[in-house]
Amino acid sequence: MRFSQGVEWMLHSVALLAQAPAGMAVSRRVLAEHYGLPEPYLAKPLKALVRAGILTASSGPSGGFRLAGRPEDITVLDIVEAVEGTSPPFICQEIRQQGTAGLSPAVCQKPCAVATMMDHAHQAWRASLRGITVVDLVKSTPKAIRDRNRADFAARLSG
Amino acid sequence: MRFSQGVEWMLHSVALLAQAPAGMAVSRRVLAEHYGLPEPYLAKPLKALVRAGILTASSGPSGGFRLAGRPEDITVLDIVEAVEGTSPPFICQEIRQQGTAGLSPAVCQKPCAVATMMDHAHQAWRASLRGITVVDLVKSTPKAIRDRNRADFAARLSG
Hints:
The structure is a homodimer. By secondary structure, chain A is mainly α. In chain A, 52% of the residues lie in helices and 5% in strands. Chain A contains 7 helices and 2 strands; from the N terminus they run αααββαααα. Chain A has a two-stranded antiparallel ribbon with strand order 1-2. In chain A, helix 2 crosses helix 3. The longest helix of chain A is centred in the last third of the chain and has 18 residues. Chain A is elongated and about 70 Å long. Chains A and B meet through helix 1, helix 2, helix 5 and helix 7 of A and helix 1, helix 2, helix 5 and helix 7 of B.
């Protein structure tokens, strides 16, 4: 069981977009070049972030992607679930209702112990990722790298 | 991203094996019939549990599967990772070292913020599942069902 690479790409890309000068849109090509990623494959996860209301997209020569809101309001969970979907990894098939020992639906109104504790673990995972915002991600980036990103953006704006 | 069905099958099967009379081995066929599962598909996850030291397998007419140890020493995490593997869902590809903004390996000795917090979330998930044992699972099963399971096992032993 493994996340798509889009999760890593989008977490880094959103953190980078949070470092762009106010009002500047960053194209898919620039994001791809920045991290050495295959540009066509960025289309799908970027579209997912727009659909989730995390990014806005604009077209035209200076078009591209921007954060739709404040970076302190975007959590890592928002980004991961926008790319991977919100479906939990464990889906209960109610096997307790099947077979020679099958229970009647009437006694299975509540989730069984297996489904309950798999859900608890999933919620613990979600809570961990919900506790981190894009601001936290940017703050954890060494200053030298943030300075270089700022210089890169300035060069693109002036070039 | 979704777990294989073997996760659900094995969590229920191990809980059932914990309810078998001492010394009784339960065949793959009986497990399949109990929960209405496709018997051939149980082979792989059952083998994984044997390989992980959670179950022992014996052959012959009264052969089958038994818990290898005490149910209070087997955690839900043990079972899930035996079936799904221990590889985390997020694998860092170090994209910060790629592209026009690529960092040198020298400054990337430590995992980046993205990899670190994805690992923290994974560890929160693991801790949640590590905190529940097979005894807890059995205790959460309604007494009426445990009684019926006991009667089923007794009937098979005497039959």
